[in-house]
Write a structure and sequence with these properties.
seven-stranded antiparallel β-sheet; alpha+beta; 262 residues
Length: 262
């Protein structure tokens, strides 16, 4: 993932809202969000190259999502960051306990920000500084820098989500916030080790590129009663539409139900 908005108790009847864009090379093979063969309680997309995932959620609301941290052109690492998400949702370790186990392994991964949540807490972890932040009530945006950064697209998605939630819009309208292609002004661009043209491309909420861009937009919402809904929209080169799926589970003892295929 490259932009994640997390809402804790974001509106009446909802205890968790996640809006996230996955930005990736279009040539990298991946699978659409669906229940996993190794544990049908878990739903998420899959990276078919390394076997991990960028975002996944379990039928009891346990979830994890990850972004890379931009420090110039990426360098290979022994382990895939997507496996950090996979391992959390397949396990039962408390969020803070799971993050504590990572300190001895961090050098095996390229830089990352990881968000993990269970029934007790939602915690963001900066894999560069190794700092943790427990997310309280309200909206929190995380992208490809430090947890404290406030890049233009982070501010933009948070402001637009606040307005949308106050108006009581539906999930489709919330998901549509992730389709915003507006590029930040040059003066507001972060310096993450790329040239100006690349920084401009990466500055929008939704990235429209032929070889690299937004591959999936995902909404996850967990109701106060434990119902979980996931909507995933997928895109190809040049922001071409590759379809949408929606899934719902009514509680931690139920199976995922496929609602939409397009």
């Amino acid at each position: 993932m490259c932009l994640i908005l997390v809402g804790i108790d974001p509106r009446p009847g909802s205890r968790l809202l996640v809006l996230a864009n996955r930005d990736e090379n279009h040539a990298r093979a991946s699978a659409a969000a669906a229940p996993w063969a190794e544990d049908a309680r878990v739903l998420g997309g899959r990276d078919l190259v390394a076997g991990g995932t960028w975002l996944a959620v379990r039928n009891d609301g346990r979830f994890a999502a990850i972004t890379n941290v931009r420090c110039g052109p990426p360098k290979p690492a022994p382990r895939s960051r997507g496996k950090l998400v996979r391992d959390f949702v397949l396990g039962d370790m408390a969020a803070n306990d799971y993050l504590a186990t990572l300190h001895t392994q961090i050098d095996q991964y390229s830089p990352f920000n990881l968000i993990v949540g269970d029934s007790e807490s939602v915690v963001a972890f900066d894999g560069v500084s190794r700092q943790r932040k427990t997310l309280g009530a309200g909206l929190h945006s995380i992208s490809n820098g430090a947890l404290a950064d406030q890049w233009p697209k982070m501010q933009r998605i948070q402001q637009h989500a606040e307005v949308a939630l106050a108006r009581g819009v539906d999930r489709a309208a919330l998901l549509a916030l992730l389709r915003d292609p507006q590029v930040a002004a040059d003066i507001d661009l972060p310096d993450t080790g790329f040239d100006l043209e690349r920084e401009r491309l990466l500055s929008s909420i939704f990235i429209q590129g032929e070889s690299y861009g937004t591959r999936a937009s995902t909404l996850v919402e967990v109701s106060s009663g434990g119902e979980v809904e996931v909507i995933e929209r997928r895109f190809g080169p040049g922001a071409s539409d590759l379809g949408q799926d929606a899934w719902r589970v009514v509680d931690a003892h139920a199976r995922w139900r496929h609602l939409v295929e397009a």
